[in-house]
Amino acid sequence: MEGLFTAIGSFILMEVISWAMHKYIMHGPLWHIHKTHHVHEKGFFELNDLFSLFFGSIAVALIVLGLEHSNPYALGAGVGVSVYGLTYFVLHDVLIHRRIKALGKLRNPYLKALADAHRDHHRTRKRDGAVVFGLLWVPLRYFRQQNRKGRIA
Predict the structure, then answer these.
(1) Which of 2, 75, 80, 106 shows its CA 20 to 30 Å from the CA of 142?
(2) How far apart are CA 53 and CA 59, in angstroms?
(3) CB 48 within 8 A of CB 36
(4) Which residues contact 35 (CB under 8 A, 6 or more apart)?
(5) What is the SS3 string spanning 107-153?
(6) What is the pTM of this model?
(7) How far apart are the C-alpha atoms of 42 and 109, rounded to whole Å?
(8) What are the boundaries of each domain within the chain?
(9) Contact at 8 Å (CB) between 130 and 124?
(10) In whole angstroms, what is the distance from residue 147 CA to residue 28 CA?
């Protein structure tokens, strides 16, 4: 049971960590890597994908540590980070940026608000001046915008 609670807590904590890392590291000292996501050129992969490999490596290390040492906390943390990574991939790369063209138009109000918030984040192609650095936490103003546009019944 402690592994399950650790996984859920790790998933939630990853949104906080991603927000902080995105705002202060990716739009800070590691902008030269993250810039490839804001100013995308030809090709499927971006240098920015290194951040996914970084978090994925941490998740794998935690899972292996948890399994090798029968540590439910390490295993739970690894699973939580992995599930967040999968959620990030599906929401960010597939639904928002359409890196894999698998689904049609977004209809869910939350997903529409999330896409609008991310679009606002990409309005700048510079290091400074971006807004909305998280993924899952969408400011209420984006839901209000959906309502004004008549997208939410």
Answers:
(1) 80
(2) 10
(3) yes
(4) 48, 127
(5) CCHHHHHHHHHHHHHCCCCCCCCCCCCCCCCCCHHHHHHHHHCCCCC
(6) 0.87
(7) 31
(8) 2-105
(9) yes
(10) 34
